[in-house]
Design brief:
- The protein has 10 helices and 8 strands.
- The chain is of the alpha/beta class and about 190 residues long.
- The two termini are about 25 Å apart.
């Protein structure tokens, strides 16, 4: 558990199921150094398979993961939305972008996006083939039309085990750039 800066912004991080979620600790550190504040990390089931929630608990005041009905009274979407000033979806998969664009709420992260009345910023991370799909472009256009922010990814090298080679795919901006964008949106 980290020390709490209750005078700063209340930041909700939505972590969706991309391998890029394994870099989340670097982003939490950059956000905390730049903004202070308190951090809740809302992890999808798939995000929690890449990065154990217990590891994230070392860096955030609160971690919400899983879909257990017993957790919903304290950690439901309406309460999560009411208790924060901004939501950064980091990383944002094609799936979560699609759900948010459609206004669907099949999981706690998507429901929280739908319930939020504050700035939402998505930081997409996916492979090149997915990023190039017209459906992804349509979803991003819809999110932007709905007033949400989608930050274009940067090209990053990553090793693909299946392809047995390094690929250059759309990925997350560097941690300081993410922290700066969140700071801008907080005003």
């Amino acid at each position: 558990m980290t020390s709490t800066d209750s005078s700063g912004p209340r930041i909700l991080i939505g972590a969706s199921g991309s391998a890029a979620v394994m870099m989340l600790p670097l982003y939490l550190g950059a956000l905390r150094a730049h903004l202070g504040g308190t951090y809740t990390v809302l992890m999808t089931h798939t995000a929690a398979t890449f990065l154990p929630p217990d590891s994230v608990r070392l860096l955030a005041e609160r971690v919400v993961s899983g879909e257990a009905p017993a957790d919903w009274p304290a950690d439901n979407h309406a309460r999560l939305a009411a208790e924060h000033d901004i939501l950064a979806v980091l990383p944002a998969t094609a799936n979560i972008l699609s759900l948010a664009a459609a206004g669907a709420a099949p999981n706690r992260l998507a429901a929280t996006i739908l319930a939020a009345e504050f700035p939402i910023v998505h930081f997409p991370s996916m492979n090149s083939a997915m990023w190039a799909k017209p459906a992804v472009a349509r979803n991003i256009a819809q999110l932007r039309a709905d007033g949400q922010h989608v930050i274009d990814p940067v090209r990053t090298d990553r090793y693909d085990v299946g392809a047995a080679r390094t690929l250059n795919d759309p990925g997350l901006p560097p941690p300081p750039a993410v922290a700066q964008k969140v700071a801008e949106l907080l005003g």
